[in-house]
Amino acid sequence: MPRSRPHAPNGACGWQPWRRSPPPRTQVRIVIDTNVALSALLWRGTPYRLLQALRQRGDLQLVSSPTLLEELSDVLRRPVAAKRLAIIGMTVQEVLADYVEAVEWVVPTDVPRVVLGDADDDHVIAAAVAGSATLIVSGDGDLLSIGSYQRICIVSARDILARIDAKGKA
């Protein structure tokens, strides 16, 4: 079972945050885990700011899969999300439509078994591989502990947003 070493140094997993600007026609392709997507869509903290940065910058592309969308849809129907939706005055359908607009969709043909603690997390890895992503953004400890997989860095929303804010780039 392939497992990348945790906490790979910058660049070791394909992400070079020091680069002033990406080469022409190059985008940093990013998969965000369901927990980050949920927070970004319903609250106004770090994940929200990250989603806004992804939408505004041409060199950052959000990538996801139908499986991750289905998981997000399921989570949005839970009581805690329903309460928040009522507060912000939106429906599940409106929130999902907003998210769908921001995403490039990929359909993984293979779901590698990587995350031993939670098989659902393997779908995040699969979307990243299928979408040729450079980064996975997650708040999930199981995913974050892996550090990287096939040169795809796995980072927290706070980490990537701090780098975007500090350097104006990903």
Q: How many helix segments?
A: 8
Note poorly predicted spans: 1-11, 15-25
**What's the CATH topology label?**
Rossmann fold
What gross morphology would you assign? globular
Q: Would you report the number of β strands?
A: 6
What radius of gyration results from the CA coordinates?
A: 15 Å
Q: Quickly give the CATH architecture.
A: 3-Layer(aba) Sandwich
Beta-strand residue percentage: 5-15%
- How far apart the termini lie comes to 30 Å
How would you classify the helix and strand content by structural class? alpha/beta
InterPro entries: PIN-like_dom_sf, PIN_dom, PIN_toxin-like
Protein name: Putative toxin-antitoxin system toxin component, PIN family
Region (Disordered): 1-20
Organism: Candidatus Accumulibacter meliphilus
